[in-house]
Amino acid sequence: MESWSLNLSDTSVLVVIGVVIAYVSVITLFGGYFARFNKNINDFFYSGQRFSWWLPAASMVATGIGSYSFLKYSEQGYNTGMSSTMSYTNDWFVLPFFLFGWLPIIYYARIKSIPEYFHRRFNSTARYLSLVILLAYMLFYIGYNLFSIGVATEGLFGIPQIWSMPILAAFLGFYVTYGGQTAVVFTDLFQGFMLYIAGFIALFAGVYALGGLDQFWGWLPTTHRLPFVHLTENYKFNTVGLFWGEALAGSVAFAFMNQGFIMRYLTIKSVDDGRKAAVFNILVTMPTSALIVGGVGWIGKSLVERQFGMGPIPGYMPIDIANTFHTFLVVCWSTLKQNPWVFGFVIASLMAALMSTIDTLINACAAVLIYDIYKPLISPKANDKQLLYAARWASMISTFVGLLLVIWFNKQKGGSLMEIHYKGIMVIIPAMVTVLFLGVFWKRFNSYGACAAMIFGSMLAVATVWFPGWIEPLSEFVSGPINGKYIYMRALFGICASAVIGITVSLLTPAQDENHHSGLTVWSITDAMRAYKGGGEPNFKKGEKLRGITAVYDNNLPEGVICVSKNTKAKLGADIGDIIYVSDQREILGGLRSDHLKITTLVNQNLKDDEVLIHKTTFKEAYLLEGRPLSLEKMI
Amino acid sequence: MKEKKILALSLIVIPLFIYFFPRWVIQTFGAASPWASYLYQYGLGGVVFFVGIYIVLKSEACQLSYHKHRKWFYFLIGGFFYFAIAHWVWIYLALNTATYSTGVN
User: What pTM was computed for the model?
Assistant: First the structure.
């Protein structure tokens, strides 16, 4: 057993494989534990919308870093330097649209899947068109993640992907299939910490090998220190292309049409907590992740420069990056002084990155298959048990299809990982991103426009693969690259083509009745809030979060409601009919034991201020524990 | 009527800005300058960002009279300048500190 890339000894290979298998097994068992929190299909996919912001936000760390991220951004970091951070630090521009547009709409309108939004906003044709594009987008990512980890295992151990991929996919499929979204959130939380620890170990080892931060910075060429690349020079990676293709199209796709991320936001207890998670993600998580995934490439460049200027560092294996696909592996192996235990831990973090991204996507694909195919078309009367059973089958099918895509990715070899990634994404996303955006922000946009834009916009974007010259006038207009090879500018072309088609068709066809899309555009969010509340105006009064509350059973109360004293109601800033978030007061649980309940009229005049009346079944269904104090917070 | 005028004006001014601004940036700094990339991203990104701010305020999806919305509004504006300033400082340090690298690799 001899690696063809790093020349690992037999013992080292066995140690690294042992660490990786141990890690994957622990995560699989940990994820499987959460099957007990899935009493219905809503729990399986959305964890009952009960988590505090920090839990999904922290778990998004791992979701946002795929196995390809370490390999792709290390390769990019080595080739172009700190500009590899560009795609992690350019998402702020679309944030107003997300925080005050898309997030409240999907949350208050209780949208379960992106195609469901298309159905309610437009019609069933739009739903199934968007379903095809969305599945292509998510399955592309599943296949791409599996492919990139296959590249790593092949490079490390010489194990052909035909063997490594099915085994890994089986582990992944197991815990997602049984644990659902709760398992995904909790395993991703754990794996996020794992990723950051392993990433920082790799960075620290590299900086230490170089002799400190000043040496690292000093040996880095000026071009590699800059946070931006040349405006247009490199067709694979240029600022203009990244701005239009990544900062705009890519960010909107990630925030608006990534079903996996949307589902993560839908596990959160309120829109306000969703905004906290989104801001934290862009402000803190993504820049930190950019450092973690690209940093080894920067260190690699600095090491190579130092090696060229002063010879290899004594005590370290000389760096020889013949294939930049393996930058991450080669640099780590050298800077960790070929210690198989620590290197095994770092490789396990690659697995963590793979598992944490794919589990989200598998769960998201399953949600789409259930809510947009199984329930409406195959079994409209299915009960929760049948839906849960079908959801588990859908998870397995998604994993299997993603596995098959690895074969296609293997045929795409020849470009960098970054190039392969964007080549696919920039063709898939433009039409749907445009329709989603116009649907949310333009009331006049109708189903004819949406369907025409998705069909013809997608066809035109795909056609540019054979006719790249079509993109040139647009690229010239925005001062982009003119080179006949357009990766990112294809997204801008697709967006413009879809927008022109969609707007023209909408203006030439009758407008939809405004009631048809009430609560589904940014212009009618208050309607969505009313519907979410089940009637009545949203309550914007300031209120306190109350702690140390004791539950008192009253089985005469209806299920799904609570009753509190007048003083407690006043402190909460709540009125009758408002939605109250009742939770185990231990913050560390992140809302795992909690529920949203309506406040009802006072039925017991003797109720104390630190007590809440609740039906026993409601108490149990919120996973609350007897004897544990509760917290109360008004939501809307 | 006022809204239609603003929309019509935007449909003229924004494409003109997208056409002329990058050309001015390239002419002034050169396409290879990191400042050209910086201004391209934050100039055109700024347009997208502030159009977004305008729409969410205009549609009353963001109501500044509500304390929680006001907080997020300030966060949004602050975050934009946070990233812009951070990138500015980064470029400045990259260009103005010594390097040992010969740059031949």
Answer: 0.87
| A227: Cβ contacts below 8 Å, ≥ 6 apart | A82, A83, A85, A86, A89, B34, B87, B90, B91, B94
Q: State whether B18 and A226 contact (CB < 8 Å).
A: no
B81–chain A nearest CA distance, Å: 10
Contact B103, A222 (CB under 8 A): yes
Amino acid sitting at position A369: L
Q: What ipTM score was computed for the predicted complex, to two decimals?
A: 0.94
- The pLDDT of A210-229, averaged and rounded, is 92
- Number of Cβ pairs < 8 A linking chain A and chain B: 158
A272: chain B residues, CB-CB within 8 Å: 68
Residue of chain B whose alpha carbon sits nearest to that of A89 = B83
Contact at CB, B99 and A240, closer than 8 angstroms: no
Place of tokens 């910075």: A217
pLDDT at A62: 74
Cβ proximity of A55 and A208 under 8 Å: no
Mutate to test the interface with B, among A102, A103, A231 (most CBs of B within 10 A): A231
CA dihedral A111, A114, A118, A121 (to 10 degrees): 30
Tell me which H or E stretch contains A155: helix A124-157
Assess B28–A contact: CB distance below 8 Å, yes or no: no
Each domain of chain B, given as residue ranges in start order, spans 2-92
- pLDDT at res. A494: 93
Task: Determine whether A314 is exposed, middle or buried from the number of CB atoms within 10 Å of its CB (0-12, 13-18, 19+).
Answer: exposed
Alpha-carbon Rg for chain A in angstroms: 26
Q: Are B80 and A212 in contact (CB under 8 A)?
A: no
pLDDT of A472 reads 92
User: Residue B19 and residue A100: Cβ atoms within 8 Å?
Assistant: no
Class of domain A10-495: mainly alpha
Chosen CATH of A539-634 out of 3.30.70.141, 2.60.120.280, 2.40.40.20, 2.40.50.140: 2.40.40.20
CB distance A93–B22 less than 8 Å? Answer: no
Give the distance from residue A164's alpha carbon to the nearest chain B alpha carbon, in angstroms.
35
Average pLDDT (A28-44) is: 69
Which two tokens mark A367? 């949600």
Predicted pLDDT at A110: 87
The CA-based diameter of chain A, rounded to the nearest angstrom, is 84
Q: Return the residue matching tokens 């839990």.
A: A55
Average pLDDT over residues A26-55: 73
**Ranges of each domain in chain A:** 10-495, 539-634
Element at A581 (helix H, strand E): strand A579-584
The predicted pLDDT at position A3 comes to 42
CB–CB of A308 and B40 under 8 A?
no
The neighbouring-strand residues paired with A413 are A415
Q: Which residues, in sequence order, are CB contacts of A193 under 8 Å at separation 6+?
A: none
